[in-house]
């Protein structure tokens, strides 16, 4: 089944179609592009689905293809033949080309493990996400909904963080049910409906921002506990050197539609001194703490009338004030941004003077795109080769966001409060 951006079915639509048409249960594995092409240039991509369980349920008219049958394939577009061939070849050497959650059979094993942990059979499994960063599958049992997540080695950090946050802020993060360290799997209980289904966007964002700040401050007051979580270090005072290293990878930062020009690289060079000064000031205005990394409305649920925050995979040990600018405020009008940021600052009262808190937030807003660019660059460097195309736009996109900020263009990024 092929589709384009204008008429894109949900993953569930495709798995339902495969079940009805071909009698097989399937799970979304990954997106692919044809070898030698880039998705953003061609606008065309393909989804790969893996069969869950045995093939015996396939309908009589269904056929299983192997590489040798492609020569006889009656496909109008040779690109499609190339993509199928590429996927079949990858499957033969999937241990080195695919992430663990993109390989055949992993979900069958994971469901077996989940049934033991839950002490009941899984009645239905629905793939919600599978990309370069991991996979999330919703499992239905007679006792309700749970979520199976696979993120590889980082699962140990995320599981430890969930335990810590659940102890300090009960009900504000998913409840961890089970964790398999060796395979990078963990199970969490369903929290509730999306926050935006019960509140307006503005109220949801304000309540979530205040909840996040409360959690961050609670952890900041116990630095030893925070350090034992072994979150990736992203200290703000190291950001200038990290940006230098990224900018030296010319092929990475000039790639694709967001790639930087030579003139724009010169702008970065001219801002280097301001960047060092801003990072120094921000570091003095507050110690490293919990930074979520992907804080947006899609990662917020409602639990007992209060916000709960999902998906801590990208959490780092960095300046906590960076978090409101990692997705929650993207594209929002100035009046909403002002309300959300005021709500975020509420739990921080007493931590510093109002002027220092405002300055901290202003500096964090200016530097957040660079923090995100470094994060995407790290993901690109550690992902499997077949997923690189998903991530190549990340670093140049956020570098461009930094340059496009009004504060960068106007020079208003320069600090006004001296700690």
Structure description:
It is a single chain. The chain is of the alpha+beta class and 419 residues long. The protein has helices at residues 11-22, 39-42, 78-92, 94-97, 106-118, 155-168, 201-220, 223-228, 239-247, 250-253, 262-270, 272-284, 334-345, 354-382, 388-391, 394-404, 406-410, and strands at 26-32, 46-51, 124-131, 134-141, 144-150, 176-180, 185-189, 289-291, 300-303, 306-309, 316-318. β9 and β10 (306-309) form a beta hairpin. α7 (201-220) packs parallel to α13. The chain is globular and about 70 Å long. It starts with 10 loop residues before the first helix and ends in a 9-residue tail after the last helix.
List its traits.
419 residues, alpha+beta, two-stranded antiparallel sheet, 17 helices, 44% helix, globular, disordered N terminus
């Amino acid at each position: 089944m092929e589709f384009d951006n204008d008429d894109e079915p949900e993953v569930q639509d495709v798995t339902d179609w495969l079940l009805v048409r071909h009698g097989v249960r399937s799970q979304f594995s990954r997106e692919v592009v044809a070898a030698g092409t880039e998705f953003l240039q061609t606008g065309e991509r393909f989804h790969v689905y893996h069969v869950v369980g045995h093939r015996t349920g396939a309908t009589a008219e269904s056929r299983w293809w192997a590489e040798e049958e492609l020569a006889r394939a009656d496909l109008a577009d040779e690109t499609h033949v190339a993509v199928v061939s590429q996927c079949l070849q990858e499957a033969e050497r999937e241990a080195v080309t695919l992430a663990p959650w993109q390989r055949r059979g992993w979900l069958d094993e994971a469901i077996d493990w989940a049934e033991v942990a839950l002490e009941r059979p899984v009645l239905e499994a629905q793939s919600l996400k599978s990309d370069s960063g991991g996979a999330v599958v919703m499992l239905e049992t007679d006792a309700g909904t749970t979520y199976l997540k696979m993120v590889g080695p980082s699962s140990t950090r995320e599981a430890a963080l969930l335990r810590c946050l659940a102890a300090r802020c009960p009900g504000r993060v998913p409840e961890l049910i089970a964790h398999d360290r060796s395979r990078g799997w963990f199970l969490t209980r369903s929290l509730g409906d999306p926050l935006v289904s019960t509140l307006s966007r503005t109220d949801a964002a304000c309540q979530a921002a205040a909840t996040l700040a409360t959690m961050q401050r609670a952890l900041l007051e116990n630095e030893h506990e925070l350090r034992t979580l072994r979150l990736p270090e992203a200290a703000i005072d190291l950001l200038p050197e990290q940006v230098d290293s990224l900018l030296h990878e010319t092929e990475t930062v000039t790639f694709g539609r967001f790639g930087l020009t030579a003139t724009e690289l010169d702008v970065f060079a001219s801002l280097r001194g301001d960047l060092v000064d801003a990072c120094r000031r921000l570091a003095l205005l507050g110690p490293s703490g919990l930074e979520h990394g992907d804080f947006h409305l899609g990662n917020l649920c409602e639990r007992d009338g209060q916000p709960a925050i999902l998906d801590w995979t990208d959490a780092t040990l960095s300046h906590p004030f960076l978090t409101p600018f990692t997705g929650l405020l993207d594209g929002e009008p100035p009046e909403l941004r002002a309300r959300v940021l005021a709500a975020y600052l509420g739990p921080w009262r007493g931590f510093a003077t109002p002027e220092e808190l405002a300055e901290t937030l202003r500096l964090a807003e200016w530097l957040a795109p660079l923090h995100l660019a470094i994060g995407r660059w790290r993901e690109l460097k550690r992902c499997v080769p077949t997923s690189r195309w998903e991530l190549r736009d990340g670093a140049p996109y956020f570098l461009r966001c930094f340059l496009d900020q009004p504060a960068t263009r106007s020079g208003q990024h320069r600090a006004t409060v001296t700690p």
